[in-house]
Amino acid sequence: MELPASELLFDEPSILAAVDHVAEYLNTVCQDGTWLILCVMNGALVFTADLMKRLEFKVTLDFVQVSRYHNKTEGTELTWHAKPSTSLQGAQILLVDDIFDEGETMLALDQYCIDNGAERVLSVVLLEKTHGREKVRFRPEIVGLKCPDKYVFGYGMDYEGYHRNLPEIYYLEE
Q: Which domains are present in the chain?
C-alpha cells in the first residue's frame, strides 16, 4: 500500500505499550461497578478494541459517531452521525477517542453524556497533540501518547478516508 509523503511517528510496539499503560490506569480506577465504553467512531475503533482486551472489570460497549474532519486534514464544525443506542442514565462511561487536539469534540461528547444522565464520565485518548492552542478548558483523564502538532494517520485514524488499517501511526510531511 502506497502511503502519502509521511514519516513514522509510533511503531506498533510503542502503541501497544501505551495501550497497556492506559489499561493499567483504568484497571485501577474502574475496578468497581460496570462501565459503558463509548467508542468514538471511526477513529477510536482500533484503540478501543485493543484496550477492551486488557480491561479486567465489567464493561459494556456502544458507540457515538461524530466528525470534525470529514475526510480532510483540518477540522470544522462538529457533525453528529450517530448517538449511542444505550441509555446513559446513571451510567459510568469510558469515553474513548483516538486523538485530543483542541478539545472541542471531547468536551461536546462529555457534555452530551452528562446531559443524558451519566453518573460519571472518564475520557480516554490514545494521542494528545502538543501545541498550546486548546480552545476549551477540558483535559482527558488518561492519555496514551503525546504527539507533535501534525496530521497523523494509521491505527484507526485516516488520511482522506484511507490507511486506518495500518498498525503504526504516521504523520504527514509538510
A: 13-148 (3.40.50.2020)
